[in-house]
Amino acid sequence: MSGDEMNPAAVAQPVEDVQGDERWMSQHTRFVQECKDAEPEVLFVGDSMVQLMQQYEIWKELFSPLHALNFGIGGDTTCNVLWRLQNGELDNIRPKAVVLWVGTNNHNHTAEQVADGIQAIAQLLTSRLPKAKIIVLGLLPRGEQPNPLREKNAAVNGRLRSLLPRLGQVQFLDVGPAFVHSDGSISPHDMFDFLHLTAAGYRALAKPLSDLLLQILEETPEEKRAPLV
After folding, report:
1. How far is CA 219 from each of CA 54, 133, 160, 213, rounded to the nearest angstrom?
2. Long-range CB contacts for residues 206-213, cutoff 8 Å, separation at least 24
3. Which of 18, 68, 131, 188 could form a disulfide with 63 if both were Cys (CB 3.0 to 4.6 A apart)?
4. Alpha-carbon distance 125 to 75, whole Å?
5. Is the Cβ–Cβ distance between 138 and 173 less than 8 Å?
6. Sheet holding 42-46, edge to edge
7. What are the pLDDT digits (tens) for 64-81?
8. Catalytically annotated residues
9. Terminus-to-terminus CA distance in the chain, angstroms?
10. CB–CB of 128/169 below 8 Å?
11. DSSP letters along 95-119, please?
12. Is the dihedral angle over the CA atoms 34, 40, 43, 47 positive or is it negative?
């Protein structure tokens, strides 16, 4: 996007409480409190794809041992995640790695806008956590058969591949193609509703992600760890 054009996918905003139960803000408040109580090595932040990960055994098996926090909220867009990170969810913590996974819920934005919104979040993370490595997960294909939303997510990923290398401490990991069969279909074995992952789906994602996280954590010298204040 041109430098003079405001990207609506990079405008920080909380979720409007249309249902009246304050659940979204309550989750955000809990995450802010966790920043005061925990000393994470890894921070996961994003939408339901992040949130649901901790409901499966793979989280306990591979990510809990890495002292990971999970700041995922179902339905979040890039705008919502940006607002959360600007309003307390990065305070008092200094993780060595951050896993960012968001964008598939940005239905009102173009692929270019979504990618640039993800880049804006990555830029915020690198600014606030200059010693951390940032892993941006590619948007997964969605829908049982090929469809416009799947094409949009692929376009987002394509743009991210060109944008993110400009941010030195950011890496892009795309495991989406592994979920698409040769006939273009996606199996309910991997995505129970052709969007959200099953236990098997998360296990397929977790292996390359865990390997990358372990590599990052092993490369980070112990002396780089600053005490929490």
Report:
1. 25, 10, 24, 10
2. 206/58, 206/62, 206/63, 208/173, 208/175, 209/99, 209/135, 209/137, 209/173, 209/175, 210/62, 210/63, 212/135, 212/171, 212/173, 213/42, 213/63, 213/66, 213/97, 213/99, 213/135
3. 68
4. 21
5. yes
6. 68-72, 42-46, 97-101, 133-137, 170-173
7. 999 999 999 999 999 999
8. 48, 193, 196
9. 38
10. no
11. -SEEEEE--TT-TTS-HHHHHHHHH
12. negative
Name the residue type at position 170.
Answer: V
Q: 170 CB contacts (<8 Å, ≥6 apart)?
A: 122, 126, 133, 134, 135, 136, 164
Tokens of 176: 């989406």
pLDDT tens figures, 120-143: 999 999 999 999 999 999 999 999
pLDDT in tens, 19-33: 999 999 999 999 999
Structure token digits, residue 214 = 């372990």
